[in-house]
Amino acid sequence: MKYSDLNLDPRLSLAIEKLNYSEATAIQEQTIPHILEGKDVAGLAQTGTGKTAAFLIPLIERILKAQANTDDSLNSGENPKENSREHARAMKDWTVRSFILILVPTRELADQINDNIIKLSSGCGLNSYPLYGGTGYEKQKEALKSGLQFIVSTPGRLIDLYKENFVDLKQVRGIVFDEADRMFDMGFKDDMKYILSRVPKDRQF
Fold first, then answer.
1. What local confidence, expressed as pLDDT, does residue 165 receive?
2. In the prediction, which pLDDT does 84 show?
3. How many helical (H) and strand (E) elements, i.e. helices and strands, does the chain have?
């Protein structure tokens, strides 16, 4: 499967081209169409096979389509939910406060995924920030106040910021557990359950 066959937003297609991605890897080919349709997906693949792009590319596309829905509705004076031109790929019930939550076991992985989001969403106007312990809260709080479409976080720091009312988990429209097996192994099971119980039930997973 070629990325040019997916009919993605031109801004996302350009970012993908700049990274020299043309042909999807096996995990990308198997998961991207399902994620674009809003389905829940569990994927398993070796390191280095493009797992991160497999969930980031379709999620970025769904946010861009949701933003286009909102813009179309504002321009036409319609209610977004009543907009007949609604994009089928659009993330459901997306608002300016909505975001995708990506939970990871380590700060290294948080930084790595955040870097990938920055590259893949280059020119798309989307904001992302990594949240983890071992560093000060102030910059993280400032980033949250500025408005983010992606939050990449370790479970403990996310819960701390949620308890201080800097993160509204009701605004989560999609949630990713990256390296979920490792998070279980590292003892994050209770934290993961705590977070899952506080995000909307109809979020994409």
1. 96
2. 36
3. 8, 4
Q: Which two tokens stand for residue 117?
A: 């989001």
The pair of structure tokens assigned to 131 is 């949240």
Spans of the chain, pLDDT less than 70: 71-86
Tokens 């977070």: give the residue: 195
Give the Cα separation of 62 and 139 in Å (integer): 28
Residues in Cβ contact with 36 at an 8 Å cutoff, skipping those fewer than 6 apart: 6, 58, 61, 62, 89
Q: Give the CA radius of gyration of the chain.
A: 17
Tokens of 192: 């993961």
1 alpha carbon, distance to own chain's centre: 22
Compute the distance between CA of residue 142 and CA of residue 148 in angstroms, rounded to an integer: 11
DSSP string covering 113-129, please?
A: HHHHHHHHTTTTT--EE
Q: Tell how strand 172-177 and strand 99-103 pair up.
A: parallel
CB atoms within 10 A of CB 66: 23
